[in-house]
Amino acid sequence: MLNILVCVKQIPDIDLVKMDPETGNLVRTGVPTLTNPLDLNALEAAVQIKERFGGRITLITMGPPMAESTLRECLAVGGDEAVLVSGRGFGGADTLSTSYAIVKAADMKGRFDLIFCGKESLDGATGQMASQLAERFDAAQISCCLSIEDIKDGRIRATRALENGRELVEATLPCLLTVEKDNFYGRLPSLDAYLASKSAPITVYAETDIDGLDPQKIGVPGSGTIVPKIYPPELPEPGQIIRTGSPRTDVGRLLELLTEKGSL
Amino acid sequence: MATYNRITPEIAAQLRAVVGNRFYEQGGVDPNYSHDEMPIYGKYMPEAAADVETTEEVSAIMKICSKNKIPVTCRGAGTGLVGGCVPLAGGLVLCTKRMNKILAYDMDNLVVRIQPGVLLKDLAADAQKRGLMYPPDPGEKTATVGGNISTNAGGMRAVKYGVTRDYVLAMTVVLADGRIIELGKSVSKTSSGYSLLHLMIGSEGTLGIITEMTMKLIPSPVCDVSCLVPFRTVEDCIHFVPKVKLANLDPQSIEFMDADIVASSAAFTGNPIFPERVRSEDVGASLLVTFTGYDEDELDQKMIKLGQIAKESEALDVLVVATSANKKSAWAARSSFLTVIEAETRLVDEMDVVVPVDKIPAFLIYIRGLGEKVGIRLRNFGHAGDGNLHIYCCSNDLEEEEFKRRVKIIMDAAYTKCAELEGQVSGEHSIGHAKMSYLRESVGEDVFELMRQIKAVFDPDMILNPGKVCDSGLAER
Amino acid sequence: MKKSDYQNMWVYIEHDGRTAAPVGLELCCELRKLCDQTGDRLFAVVLGELPESELDKVKDCGIDGIIRVSGTGYEYFNTDAWAKAFTVLSRKYNPSAIFVGGTIDGRDFAPRFAVQLETGCTSDAMELGWDAETGDIQFIEPAVGGKIMAVITVPALRPQVGTIRPGTFPCAPVGAKQEIERIEERIDFDPEKIRCRHLGFIPDESDPELDIANADCIVCVGNGLKDSEHLERYRTLAKLLGGKLGCTRPLYDRGILPYKLQIGQSGVMVKPKLYISFGVSGAVNHTAGVDADVFVAVGKNPEAQIFNYCDYGIVGDMDEVCDEMIAQIKALRQ
To answer: Around Cβ C324, how many Cβ atoms within 10 Å?
Structure first.
């Protein structure tokens, strides 16, 4: 039986995050959260593997206590167990320290044959976590996976998307995969699993619960990068807005201008 | 017998004096004003068009047009499906899309006063900001509320909340001769003579032009959840509907979709949210049942109950649409159905019949057999909870004439069957000119004649939306 | 760690054995400017065989030196050998920064060797700056869907690792230096230890509709699009203008259009003569990918940033304006 880990993340709905014009800080309070959509594609791939080859899916996330809801959402569609890595010490982490904390916490649950994670998160969007987790798990890596052909004898055969085509590869286990969404649209949870997920136990690991965790390698101290400054994008001066009173005349004027410019 | 006049330069000048540069003639008329979303019923260009903004403008225009016997066809967003807003007799198209202001909320009585050109989605969103809900929910969100009233549009939530008619409290109407009248009051009961208000609702612009209305709102439910219940066959699926209704679960909507439309929608939107296989079995048809409530426990209890009924029936599973992302996807898929059909098909015609809920399987089985026999591809989905079915006749390879011939065979037989099952010609798309003959057959000569007499009282010169609903005499004029 | 012990900046030259990918040259050109500020020397790093003529192109970008790595394990890209090579090289030469093109391969291995080296890694910077006081590179990039610009630094660790998307910087070679240092390294990676092996490759069938990088006219649809049902008119408009349809990221995320039509930093970079956007908010991630002669924006929200990037704007219902354009262009042509 395959031991599968799926890494997920709860993110704010970035469409609703605003920047405070006074302070220049991001206003996240009251912004609804969701499960990073690409993580749900990764979970779907894991669930398909579980169905085809047999396996057990452990979910893991790092975040505040409310990130529990993301784990429950994932339990409902096929996760068997869930781990929440949560504590003040983990806060402010970049990918270097997050990958460290996730891998140390996952080690508490044993060895994993397959690790899945989303290609990137819509909020951070570095796309670095997958590679860094793979490195820390000392695992092979298949990114942008399109289809999983077979798993046997400690190897996985899969196709992946490249810039100009698809590549067939074979990797040894343990292997970390990120997936393209095309063949891995998330499924709807079955009612029984949905209801069960509401009261399912979730393992919560604080800093002190994780064996051998080096406090210097988590959170802010463990991060390689910092964000010393954020600012609103500098915008060019607005273009010429055509306001003639009606869409019809607006378009008429635009086409005149474009004709003058020779753009049509 | 009434005859119509053409819009002479003098009349055009008078009309232009009313609306200024919002008056268009000949080449200046938006070509879209010649059709609605069902072009199979023909395109008819008006001589002129006016985008009106106020009740007074409408009144002034009607005075000019009634004096000169110019046909006037009122139009909103043009999203109808029966040729209702198509200017069969030419004349003037009066478009209300610029009358799109939400005028005032009365938060003590939970009513809102709006202009007819307000889009359904804009009213819904604006009410939502105030914690209120406008319950009618027709599939076409870019329709105008004025159009919804004129067709008494229904929609998905009708199971729980009723149809557009149930949310119209009062309206301002411009009569054919330009007089302005007020119908109804912002009260929840009335027992005060004939309800001309309700006569106007569903009259498709044949009795008067609605220029302002007062709509009822309700406090928004706090939360909602949907369950997708897949079945092997259409019959299993439909048989489940009465069980849901009897279980006292008070669903907001019960939507039916068959495997074909789900597959087409998934291919079209690129979003396979509704599964085509469940537990290793092919899904033949699914129901989407939506519950609303005031807390999550309440919804959970309803879902548990639904799950129990499902276990005792032929349901393959019960799937939950609970996260905002899944709700968005499910909604997008469900509301894409008509568009999918339009996009993948060259020739389309449709029926919007409504039958008693328990007669749905009988009707669907009959119509499927009919489609196969006649050689027309059918697509169907609909509001299973209230027996309202949208059946689309589609073809990509037939010649238009042959398609029309075959569709007529299907329609004739289908409406006969519908009558036999105690159904109605239209659940929510109304009559326009496309379904007039079927209306006539369905209601009988006595009723049809009464409708014509009523029309004559409101519009003796027959200038309002000629050739629609019960105006069968256009060809003679 | 003493930051001053780490000097010089490196650019990885991605290639397929025959030609060098443009992104490596773009990065060399951009970093030449940065190195002139910082006083670092600029090195190109090449793994495996690449013809001299291609190396000359790299040299033209103003580099101070080339590090050529030979050995086993470099026949076909694999993240194991690549990450290892950079770790070994970095430990030996202590560069201050390593830049890697943000291609699929680059994004695979760069974050991996950053972990092996336990250092900070950034991705997708759009501008590079330098803080003379701290000696840190400023990686400046859009964040939170382009709502803000974030300055990211690696304050204490070295090397500073960054992946940068192809097309972010122009390739403007300043010419080859007279003296270019050449370092030859042999780093063998046991092919048996490559954990993910290449078995085969099937090129994508070319669909001209999906090839928008060189289109002269692009009609771009953004998140203002209500639904896929409203899409057809934009295709019609594009066809009418002899152009192609493109989209912004949310439309790809919503499953409405394929990834190959996504315009912007994380999608396709385009440089059309005429670009018309409908319902596009104007997030930096998107506009960074558009280099148009004439830029037209249509959208409902007059406050949208897109109007800052356009030459001409129309505030209104996108569908209505599109229909109007189709009708009037048809009329013009009659």
So the answer is: 24
Task: Please give the CATH topology (third level) of the domain spanning A2-217.
Answer: Rossmann fold (3.40.50)
Q: Between A34, A190, A191, which is nearest B324 by CB?
A: A34
pLDDT digits (tens, 9 = 90+) for B274-290: 999 998 899 999 999 99
Write the DSSP string, C157-188.
-SSEEEEE-TTSS--------S--EEEEEE--
Structure tokens at B136: 């009618």
Contact yes or no for A191 and B318 at CB 8 A = yes
Contacts of B322 in chain A (CB under 8 A): 189, 194
Looking at residue C229, its pLDDT comes to: 74
In chain A, which residues have pLDDT < 70?
Answer: 21-25
Q: Does C108 touch chain B (CB under 8 A)?
A: no
Answer whether residue B117 shows pLDDT above 60.
yes
Cβ A263–C310 below 8 Å, yes or no? no
Q: Which of B30, B31, B336 is opposite residue C229, by nearest beta carbon?
A: B336
> With an 8 Å Cβ cutoff, is C332 touching chain B?
no
What the block records as the tokens of B174 is 């411009």
Q: Which residues of chain C have pLDDT under 70?
A: none
A to B CB pairs, distance under 8 Å: 52
Query: For residue B234, what pLDDT is reported?
Result: 85
Q: Are B336 and C255 within 8 A, CB to CB? A: no
pLDDT of residue B1: 46
Higher-scoring residue by pLDDT: B335, C172: C172
Q: What domains are defined for chain B?
A: 9-98 (3.30.43.10), 102-219 (3.30.465.10), 223-337 (3.30.70.2190), 345-438 (3.30.70.2740)
Question: Which pLDDT belongs to residue B92?
Answer: 97
Q: Which residues have CB under 8 Å from C85's CB, separation 6+?
A: C47, C69, C71, C74, C187, C189
Give me the interface pTM, i.e. the ipTM: 0.92
Under 8 Å CB-to-CB from C205, ≥6 apart: which residues?
A: none
Q: Residues spanned by CATH 3.40.50.620 within chain A?
A: 2-217
pLDDT at residue C325, rounded to an integer: 95
Contact status of C327 with chain B (Cβ, < 8 Å): yes
Whether B284 and B231 have beta carbons less than 8 Å apart is answered as yes
Torsions phi, psi of B132, nearest 5? -115, 160
A263 touches chain C (CB under 8 A): yes
Q: Do B335 and C227 touch (CB under 8 A)?
A: yes
Whether the CB of C334 is below 8 Å from some CB of chain B: the reply is no
B356, B421 contact by CB (below 8 A): yes
Encoded amino acid at B342, one letter: E
List of E strands, C178-233: 181-186, 196-203, 217-221
